[in-house]
Amino acid sequence: MVTTKDTILRRVDLHIHTPRSFCYSDKSITAGQIVEAALAKGLDAIAVTDHNTFESVDDIRSAVQGKGLVVFPGVELSTKSGHFLALFEPGTPLVELRKVLANIGIKTEDWGDAAVFVEGTVEEIFPKIVAHGGLVIAAHIERWPSGFLETKELKKAKLAIHDNPDLSALEITVAADKDAWNRGEQRGFRRKMACIQGSDAHSPAEIGRRPVFIRMEEISIAGLRKAFLNFEVSIIFP
Questions:
Q1: Most-buried pick from 7, 123, 171, 185 (CB within 10 A)?
Q2: pLDDT at 210 over 70
Q3: How far apart are CA 159 and CA 190, in angstroms?
């Protein structure tokens, strides 16, 4: 955490996986090891974003007790239009998070499997996330084949995703492109958009490898929303 005269810069990683994701590198890794790795990188907040499941959230929340690390419960959703992160308020109960998955049609047997696509279009999926109090971020947008820019969708469909009012930010892996996305000058995508980085960690060693500083008085979904709306001064890449 970095304190300035006017506000607080929070060092965060909003894209972290656990062994609940089928593709995780080492299934023996514990919640405690994940939390200790985040603390070692000086993070103030993380988002647990397993593929199509929230089942590790309570384990991570238990492991952070008394350690000052805020945990956003989240999920990485696979769709035909790409992967998207859905983040929720830190204190949201697991039973409510499971309702999100049920509402968008993810079956229990598919929890953790990135190969299972959510049925429907993003125009149908995004409002359901927002209705549950969630915030939507397009995941690793330039990565083939799961970033929305690199799917087989037509350019018109990609432009519509970028312009969707329920999409709050872009997770980019090419940090040098941040200013162009912020100014609406990237590849014909004219909407000025907030950008973040995230580790997409599939092992403790990867946690915090692409952190971002976000100005927030309170680490919350409301704090993230406010920062994303004021990204010019509220989001800083190290």
A1: 171
A2: yes
A3: 9
The model scores a pTM over 0.70: yes
Amino acid at 101: L
Q: What class does CATH assign to 2-236?
A: alpha beta
Q: How far is CA 137 from the centre of its chain?
A: 6
Which pairing describes strands 2-3 and 135-138: parallel, antiparallel, or unpaired? Answer: unpaired
d(CA 180, CA 215): 21
Give the integer Cα–Cα distance in Å for 168 and 116: 24
Between CA 55 and CA 60 the distance in angstroms is 10
Evaluate if residue 7 carries a pLDDT over 70.
Answer: no
């680490």: which residue's tokens?
219
> Among positive and negative, which fits the CA dihedral 147, 150, 156, 159?
positive
Task: Give the whole-angstrom CA distance, residue 55 versus residue 107.
Answer: 13
**Tokens 């330039």 -> residue:** 142
pLDDT tens, residue by residue, 146-188: 999 999 999 999 999 999 999 999 999 999 999 999 999 998 9
Q: What is the mean pLDDT of residues 200-214?
A: 98
Tokens of 58: 């309570």
